[in-house]
Design a protein that fits this description.
Layout (H helix, E strand, L loop, with lengths): L6 E3 L6 E5 L3 H8 L3 E7 H14 L4 E5 L8 H13 L6 E7 L1 H13 L5 E6 L2 H7 L4 E6 L2 E8 L4 E4 L9 H18 L1 H10 L9 H20 L14 H10 L7 H19 L4 H11 L13 H8 L12 E6 L2 E5 L4 H17 L6
Parallel strand pairs: 2-9, 3-4, 3-5, 5-6, 6-9
Antiparallel strand pairs: 1-2, 7-8, 10-11
Length: 365
């Protein structure tokens, strides 16, 4: 298994490293001497908790239900209660063992407990390795929108163990590929081309090439976060595909779509707007649509309409001065922020996205 040098997220006093396939017990001892708490979810616990308990035998454990619905006030309160009842103080380090949901939830618990305790991210999904575990975004969902309640809370380290990928269901694997395609579209044309060649709905591209691409995505995320920790500028580019995607997730009550699937659908809408608004070349547009069209997505129920999604999107935290801020691509490998899009154009892009999900073969060209 490949081992890479650490990637630094350069944030001055809040800087940290992303580590790959290390002697985890020795590394953790060098990183912290604080009292450890592992927060994970039931499915991840079944696969990986025993392994990490052997590495951190003194750790207390909190296990929450799987799924996006655990990113909620009641589950967060339960975590706070258990931390208090176990007598844990500021001399605590929380290990977030899981995918993006656990990283967000455990991260926000760390940010908010005792006004902030240390956090170490251990991502177990492809999506979390390339995106959610890096950059310090934490939070829970609200019934009116995704990730509306949260905080920026940088971890002390991110520990990426590629062996976790061996237990990923195909659906979760493809969710991670969706986020990786986003990085290629906004920043790295070669990365997008390599991913496009290897996507298959019948198996996982588990050779060393995909691991190299995971490292490349982590590098891009680290570079962007190092330039813009709190999304006041360039970091907003990482939201490509996410504005409509978050609307889809909320419209499906966080049960219908996984996050990566919603991002894939949102990429369709963003590509449509990019073609209309900034002249995305036809060849690039077709390549994007054909690539994401090979990834299966859940069909949309009739009650989830463009109007429903648009109303949800009005609560999106990316709205600034009453205007939607969309990330558009003028060519694969480049992107920019656009806040000049009219509501009618956004509505049309949502309509297009719904058509893509249910009938993508008919609208690729």
């Amino acid at each position: 298994m490949n081992q890479f040098s650490p990637i630094k997220v350069d944030l001055g006093p809040s800087s940290y490293n992303i580590f790959f396939n290390r002697d985890w017990a020795g590394l953790i001892k060098s990183l912290t001497t604080k009292k450890p708490m592992i927060i994970t979810e039931e499915n991840v616990a079944g696969y990986h908790l025993d392994h990490w308990k052997r590495i951190i035998p003194e750790a207390e454990i909190i296990i929450v239900p799987p799924g996006e619905q655990s990113k909620s006030y009641p589950v967060l309160e339960r975590i706070h209660t258990e931390l208090i009842e176990k007598g844990l103080s500021r001399d605590t380090v929380i290990f977030a063992l899981g995918g993006g949901m656990i990283g967000d939830l455990a991260g926000f618990a760390a940010a908010s407990y005792m006004r902030g305790v240390d956090l170490i991210q251990i991502p177990t999904t492809l999506l979390a390795m390339v995106d959610a575990s890096i950059g310090g975004k934490t939070g829970i969902n609200h019934k009116l929108g995704k990730n509306l309640i949260g905080a920026f809370w940088q971890p002390k380290a991110v520990l990426i163990d590629f062996r976790h990928l061996n237990t990923l269901p195909e659906r979760e694997w493809l969710c991670g590929i969706g986020e990786m395609l986003k990085y290629g579209i906004i920043r790295d044309k070669e990365l997008f081309a390599n991913l496009s060649e290897r996507i298959s709905i019948s198996g996982k591209p588990q050779d060393w090439i995909i691991i190299e691409m995971v490292k490349r995505c982590a590098e891009i995320k680290a570079e962007i976060v190092s330039q813009d920790e709190r999304e006041s500028g360039v970091r907003a580019l990482l939201n490509f595909g996410h504005t409509i995607g978050h609307g889809l997730e909320a419209a499906g009550d966080y049960n219908l779509f996984r996050h990566g699937e919603a991002v894939i659908a949102g990429i369709a809408g963003a590509a449509y707007l990019s073609r209309k608004k900034c002249g995305l070349p036809q060849d690039d547009y077709t390549q994007i649509m054909r690539t994401i069209g090979r990834i299966p997505l859940p069909p949309i129920p009739r009650e989830i309409t463009a109007s429903v999604i648009f109303e949800i999107m009005k609560h999106d935290k990316k709205i600034k001065s009453g205007k939607f801020r969309f990330i558009l691509t003028e060519a694969i490998g480049a992107a920019h922020i656009d806040d000049s899009i009219e509501d009618s154009e956004i509505f049309n892009s949502i309509d297009f996205t719904l058509d893509f999900i249910n009938n993508n073969a008919d609208i690729i060209e």
